[in-house]
Amino acid sequence: MQNIPHIPVLYTQVLETFGDIKEGIVIDCTMGYGGHSSMILEANPHVRVIGIDQDQSAIDFSTSRLEPYKDRVEIKKGRFSSVIRDILKEHDKKEIKGILADIGVSSLQLDQKERGFSFSSENLDMRMDRDAHLSAATVINEYSEQDLQRVLLEYGELRNYKKIASFIVNNRPFSSAKELSEAIKHLMPTGKKIHPATLLMQAVRIEVNDELGELNSLLDTIEEAKFLNTKIAIISFHSLEDRIVKNRFVRWRESCICPKEAMRCTCSNDYSYGKILTKKPITAEDDELKVNPRSRSAKLRVFETDI
Fold it and tell me: Nearest to residue 244, comparing CAs of 97, 101, 110?
């Protein structure tokens, strides 16, 4: 591996997932530092990679890092759910042999404290795309109490979401992630190995970047495209994302789409998109956890289309 600022999560498992792809294109929907992309390119000498990221910092870094593979790399800026549609206009879908999406905040964004993703950040931003309008400061300091309640309940699954929302409204404005996470600490769940404010920060970040909407849009695009013999590998980091991926994969596997209460099958019973390759989500092994603590919540699910 190259001298890189971080180790991509579940890198061994990702390489194994795409290891039998001899040629064609693998789309890396969330390129970040380019860790997964570089290893796929190194391990599969006849495979091309199209990398996507909405963060210009990631694009600049990965462009430099992937220079040795420039003849086999194409990098695009934008939200992956829409960029994939553009890719399908430029390439025959038969060429697409793999799709990888490492959902959520990237290590590059966490490492840059000025981005506001870190608990110790002096900023309150959290935008994956710095050109986007909505920021964490807007959510925290300008959202109504009712809208804050929605964000905390839906995206943080916090039981005391009403109390937290009330506290924020009555004590704002907040100017930094550090100030917010310290102020709210006494209201957050305790006894876990994570920072007390993790679920709050997660909820705000998901709202700012429409992360679940993006994931659903990506899955919709993949479903509509009807890819041929393509492996879909998605890494998620919390239950909301994993639940969406799991349920969609299960739906894709089903051949019959008749209502459960139907007495007999009246559809053509040929709607299956392929098969699930991971009965349970793949998680990091002990050796990876020791060197890369960020991998502790990562879950990889893989689906293979066979249309």
Answer: 101
148: left (phi over 0), alpha (psi -120 to 50) or beta: alpha
User: Using CB atoms within 10 A of its CB, is residue 57 exposed (0-12), middle (13-18) or buried (19+)?
Assistant: middle
Query: Which neighbouring-strand residues pair with 6?
Result: none
* 135 touches 204 (CB < 8 A): no
The answer to whether the beta carbons of residues 91 and 25 sit under 8 Å apart is: yes
Residues 208-247: tens digit of each pLDDT: 999 999 999 999 999 999 999 999 999 998 899 999 999 9
Assigned token pair, 20: 């039998």
φ, ψ of residue 33 to 5 degrees: the values are -75, -5
Q: What is the pTM of this model?
A: 0.88
Beta 274-276 vs 24-28: how paired, if at all?
A: unpaired
- The tokens describing 242, both together, are 């994993």
CB 144 within 8 A of CB 135: no
pLDDT averaged over every residue in the chain: 89
Per-residue tokens: 305: 């289309």
Measured CA to CA, the distance from residue 222 to residue 228 in angstroms comes to: 11
Is 130:53 a contact under the CB 8 Å cutoff?
no
Produce one character per residue of 192-215: b if its CB has 16 or more CB atoms within 10 Å, e if not.
Answer: eeeebbbbbbbbbbbbbbbbbebb
What is the phi/psi pair of residue 52, to 5°? -125, 140
